Amino acid sequence: NETRTIDRSTYYQWPETIEHIRSLQPDAVIFSDAGPDIRWVGNERGIAAPTTWYTLDTQGRYPGYSPPGYDPEQDLGPGQPQGLQWVPPEADVSIRPGWFYHPEEDDQVKDGLQLLDLYYKSVGRGANLLLNLPPDHRGLIHERDIRALQEFRRLREQLDRNQITSEASVRVSSGSDCAAVLNDNLDRFWQADLNDPNPWLQLDFANPVVFDHIVLQEAIQCGQRIAGWQVELAAADDWQTIATGTTVGHKRIIALPSSLHAHRLRFRFTTAGPGMAVNHLSLSSTRT
User: Fold this and answer.
1) 16-24 — which CB contacts under 8 Å span 24+ positions?
2) For the segment 67-126, what is each residue's pLDDT rounded down to a tens digit?
3) CA nearest neighbour of 182 among 272, 267, 57, 113
């Protein structure tokens, strides 16, 4: 008949615990709302913030604790552009309503389209996606969950299978090796000059192409520097803006509401730190 409390900042000996993990598994990724390697996104819906910074100020935070009165979704989700630590977000969600298996929820499994939407709102916003798959009473993944995963895979693979960017030629505002954005080697990248105030990248096609998805990846080995972008499509003698956004990070997936035709496509980085870099850009058509 009493209430006992502990000092969570010291009781679990987090510095010693982390050091012990590092000694046993140097490549392990340690997760909590304070990192140190990857942070909780602030919700359990599998949704990252539309603006996602990988940097966070972890001073005064430790696993299970953050400053009083903070909103985790508004704090941990977006991160902090001036944060001192590199702690990317992980978006966690279950394929079922809860984290454990219940037979009465067999008809409530998220289907392939729902999982794809979560993929766009997590990985497609620069976060990592952690999808929970609870084993059933047999110790196996239930057949309905497996069918949903197979459909999710089929839909996701369309983004890669129907890429059309290889047909493009590339022009940029400054910098070199701009063709690097069209290959899958993420060690190569195009980097704008440090004194380029308005970086842009343009794709030109000999023949019109049809697309409904754009995947843009920032070369984060150079840091996360893109804070604003817009995509423009050449229409007659003018440019028409078809999409805008803020951060890019490891990956930004732009799912367009309908298919578009283009001879030329331009990416303007409207807010970006000096030396911003891109290592992958692709267009795909999932409706063909």
Assistant:
1) none
2) 777 788 999 999 999 999 999 999 999 999 999 999 999 999 999 999 999 999 999 999
3) 267
Q: Please give the order of strands across the beta sheet that includes 38-40.
A: 31-32, 38-40, 89-94, 128-132
The answer to whether residues 128 and 89 touch, using CB atoms and an 8 Å cutoff, is yes
Helix, strand or coil for residue 118? helix
Q: Could you tell me how many residues make up the chain?
A: 288
**Dist CA 106 CA 109 (whole Å):** 6
| SS3 assignment, position 254 | strand
Q: CA-CA distance, 145 to 135, in Å (whole number)?
A: 10
Query: 105 by DSSP, 3-state: which?
Result: helix
For residue 138, give both structure tokens: 């047999």
Hey, is 139 helix, strand or coil? coil
On the question of a cis peptide bond just before residue 88, with omega within 30 degrees of 0, the verdict is: no
Q: Which tokens in the block code for residue 217?
A: 């990846």
CA proximity to 6, closest of 64, 76, 70, 71: 64
Bridge-based pairing of strands 89-94 and 128-132 is parallel
Whole-model pTM? 0.92
Question: CB of 180 within 8 A of CB of 240?
Answer: no
